[in-house]
Amino acid sequence: MAEVGAGTEGRETAAQDLERELSKLFGRARSLSLTFAARVHPGLDSASYALLVHLSGIAPVRAADVVELTGLDKSTVSRQIARLEELALVERVADPSDGRARLVQLTGTGAARLAEVREDRRRQLRATLADWSTVDIEEFSRLLGRLNSDL
Hints:
Elements: H1 8-40, H2 46-58, H3 63-70, H4 74-86, E1 90-95, E2 98-106, H5 108-128, H6 134-150
Antiparallel strand pairs: 1-2
Helix pairs in contact: 1-2, 2-4, 3-4
């Protein structure tokens, strides 16, 4: 069975449409990220907010492991962790398995502020998708997962 819109022209148009929509989505995501970051702390930038979100799912962890898990440059991670410490959103604690090593984890304040913002973000997303069917949400999620895996 032939694919709908198959052929060079149809595929090129579909790819251009997708590129345009992804560009809009990424722009909106950056804007939302800045908004959410400011709600966690007025001095928080979007890159450090992204690291804070990542840390919330893996902490406590060594900074070197954060570099490996995120693929970010060591100096970038170090700078962002230092900024998060300055804002009292993360702290370094002794590693119970190696007293010489330090682990990075969210502070109580950091965890509470992030949880509040994330719940608001989820609430907004549910409201945005209120008119979508469950099947459409599942299919969109599946396709986004596929795209993320392929990237």
